[in-house]
Amino acid sequence: MIVEMRIYHCAPTRLPALLDRFTTHTLGFFEKHGIEQIGFWTTLIGPSNHALTYMVKWDSLAEREQKWNAFQADADWIRIRAASEAEKPIIERIENHFLTPTSFSALR
Hints:
The chain has 3 helices and 4 strands; from the N terminus they run E-H-E-E-H-H-E. By secondary structure, it is α+β, with helices and mostly antiparallel strands. Strands 2-3-1-4 form a 4-stranded antiparallel beta sheet. A hairpin with an 8-residue loop joins strand 2 and strand 3. Helix 1 (15-32) runs antiparallel to helix 3 (75-84). The chain starts with a strand and ends in a 9-residue tail after the last strand. Residues 3-105 form the NIPSNAP domain.
């Protein structure tokens, strides 16, 4: 198992738009393309409260490449993402980490 942790750093005031896009659209595309989420978090205390952190589970990097590329190339997703950012961009930058569990991890 591989866990991908993604942190989306939003432009000021744009976190609500990102949360709405995930709730209304993105999670449906994840389901369509077989992307299994572990969880989503916003920052309660930290350097910025304009971030969304989430984790998804993969069996392998090959599975991730196949499913993520299909999601990113989905014409409906491309259209919806563009429409959600028509007024102004939502995300300033993305951090991406691939994690593997230790032998003593509760999640393996």
